[in-house]
Structures are given as C-alpha cells and as structure tokens.
Amino acid sequence: QVQLVESGGGSVQAGGSLRLSCTVSGSAYNWDSCMAWFRQAPGKAREGVAMFYTGNTQTAYGDFVKGRFTISRDSAKNTVYLEMNSLKPEDTAMYYCAATSWLACSWDQRGYNYWGQGTQVTVS
Predict the structure, then answer these.
(1) How far is residue 75 from each of residues 31, 43, 107, 109, 124, measured CA to CA in Å?
(2) CB-CB contact of 108 with 53 (8 Å)
(3) Digitized pLDDT (tens) for each residue of the chain, 124 residues in all
(4) Beta carbons of 114 and 101 less than 8 angstroms apart
(5) How far apart are CA 92 and CA 16, in angstroms?
(6) Residues 40, 82, 60, 78, Cα dihedral to 10°
(7) What CA–CA distance (Å, rounded) separates 112 from 106?
(8) Backbone dihedral region of 59: left (phi > 0), alpha (psi from -120 to 50 degrees) or beta?
C-alpha cells in the first residue's frame, strides 16, 4: 500500500511564500515514476500545478505558475516539495500530491494511482 501525506499548507499574505511537502511511504512504490501537485479551488475544477518525472528529473508547470513555484525531490526522505513564492489570492486552494508510473506522467488526473488527502493554502 502506497500512502502520500501532504503538509505545509497554511494562511499567508499576498506576496508571501510556502513550502508544501509530500512524503511517500509503502514498499510498492517505485521511485522511477511521476510525482505531481494538483490544486482545487472552491467551485473550480482541479488543475495541474507542477509535475516531476523522477527518472530524469524533468519538471513541468501549469501556465499560471509563471516561474513562481518549484517542484523538487529529496529521495533520502522520500519527499517531494512544492516551493511557492509570490503567492496571489487566486492561488488559494486545496493542494494535492499525486503519484503514478512514468508511462502515465501527464496532466491527466485520471492516470494518477495515488493521492494524498490535501493541504489547504489560503492567500489573502
């Protein structure tokens, strides 16, 4: 059983920063795979924020990120991070960590096998 646990959410003022963490556990998990962050604001569809392919450390970001966020991994800690800077009120949402195999590494949420419970980010 693979589990993803997010942390690091909270309330910040516009222009502030947060670092979200997603810790992965479970012997079935293969680190040669894809990790991603998605978010969902009230009344809106869930959208892709950042994606990290662990095999070659390639990354991808949603168009709205515009250089403000960085996804990274600490393999020794089995943790993926999302560093968010210059936060805006429109970044307010529940942020979810997700994992899948490298074959399904895309913005298509249906391809992600494992999801965390989410961590709330509020920007005022």
Answers:
(1) 8, 35, 23, 23, 33
(2) no
(3) 789 999 999 999 999 999 999 998 886 566 558 999 999 999 999 999 999 987 778 899 999 998 999 999 888 888 999 999 999 999 999 999 999 888 888 999 999 989 999 999 999 9
(4) no
(5) 12
(6) -110
(7) 9
(8) beta
The rounded distance, in Å, linking the Cα atoms of 50 and 69 is 8
Query: How many residues does the structure list for the chain?
Result: 124
